[in-house]
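Question (not urgent): is this output format expected?
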Amino acid sequence: MGNRKAADGQTIQGDCIFVNKWVYRFHEPKRGDLVVFKTEGIEKRQSEKFNIPDTQIYVKRLVGLPGERVSIRPPYVYINGKKLVEPKIFEIISGGGNGYEGFLGADFWGSEKSENKEIELGKDEFYVLGDNTRNSLDSRFFGPVKRESIIGKVAWIYWPPERRGIPE
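Got this back:
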């Protein structure tokens, strides 16, 4: 899933994953899923600061579902005005557990003020965030991801060995 930064600034080798491309043929993506999506079709893909090619494949956690209102008030994410704590991974990230820092707005990168800014998702749009929002290029920057851009769900981490298993 790409390299990531540890809390101490060290680079950690990214996970190697298996992706279930069939699961969303039987049901819609669920909040908390780690989804794999292509950047093609993301409207705000190109901006002054970021130029994301069409050919990129990203892995992010699905936070907001179609028709919902999403906002970030660090360290929490709010859905329709209510603090997001379920599934449990959202409470862990918001609480700073397992080396997470909570959810941050986009303004820490010098982007437009995003804290308390609310976005309403369309009928086929999803809001995705990286678990480590300090080092994640996600919906805070490029906006919602269309349903048609979602390839599948992360089913299994197979490398590195210490992280092997079904992701949280």
